Amino acid sequence: MALSNPIPSPTARTARRYLRTPAPLSFPVEEEVPESGRHERARFLLADSIRHALAPSGLVSSDQFLYWDPTNPGRRLAPDVAVRVSAPRELLPSWKTWERGAPHLGVEIVSDSDASELRFEEKLERYRRAGVAEVVRFDWDDAVHPIRIWDLFDGDMVERDLTDPEALRSDALGFYFLAFRDPELGVTLRLSRDRAGADLVLTAEEAALAAKEAALAAKEAALAAKEAALAAKEAALARVAELEAELARER
């Protein structure tokens, strides 16, 4: 049964009931930060492939502020990709964990502005405080270990041992992270359904193109089969005509 006198929402209240004018906290939704075209494209490909794989659910944000402290707008992150599995799909101005929960996955694609190890250690501490369960770092320039992964374990952010064959498997998504050689970007961060990287998790655009190419290949195969059947029929008719001619000569 509904309450006869429900508590009014903060927005429904007026400032006249207070001894001073309320000063709501402002949580910015954007900030001008330089980004290379390569970084933007890599970020888009990864985010869109995850959206497509998780559809119709799954909350995915890209390069948006993540806030975890409702009393301090300065405590924030801006993951290149953040994911909460099985959450309602929304277009967020910013991600506030007290409203939608913490992301299960946060991804950082290294840019010129945050390449230092010390700066990333600071980010890891922020991810720990935000309660993000899995953090992935991709470094274009690291030829040995371009992908590194940390897990939130009993309140501690612990890096995975990459000698483990399953180390690059995302616990949140069930897919494998891989350093994929893209014809446009060079080596970039993507996901695969198998550990070998043979079954790439596609973006919506890539999936549509692959479906179109598969349909065209099937059409061409059907046409080739039809042409082969016609050629076989013509060869059979030619053989029948040849035998009839031989029979006529013998008579």
Give a short summary of the structure:
This protein is α+β, with helices and mostly antiparallel strands and 251 residues long. Helix content is 33%, strand content 19%.
Spell out the blueprint of helices and strands.
Blueprint: H1 37-54, E1 59-61, E2 66-67, E3 76-77, E4 81-84, E5 95-96, H2 97-100, E6 105-109, H3 117-130, E7 134-138, E8 147-153, E9 156-159, E10 176-182, E11 186-192, H4 204-250
Parallel strand pairs: 2-5, 6-7
Antiparallel strand pairs: 1-4, 2-3, 4-6, 7-8, 8-9, 10-11
Task: Give a verbal description of the structure.
The protein has 251 residues and is α+β, with helices and mostly antiparallel strands. The chain has two domains: 26-202, Alpha-Beta Complex (tt1808, chain A), CATH 3.90.1570; 203-251. Helices cover 33% and strands 19% of the residues. The protein has four helices and eleven strands. It has helices at residues 37-54, 97-100, 117-130, 204-250; strands spanning 59-61, 66-67, 76-77, 81-84, 95-96, 105-109, 134-138, 147-153, 156-159, 176-182, 186-192. The strands form three sheets. Strands 1-4-6-7-8-9 form a six-stranded mixed beta sheet, sandwiched between helices. A three-stranded mixed beta sheet has the order 3-2-5. Strand 8 and strand 9 (156-159) form a beta hairpin. The longest helix is centred in the C-terminal third of the chain and has 47 residues, at 204-250. The N and C termini lie far apart (104 Å). The mean pLDDT is 89.
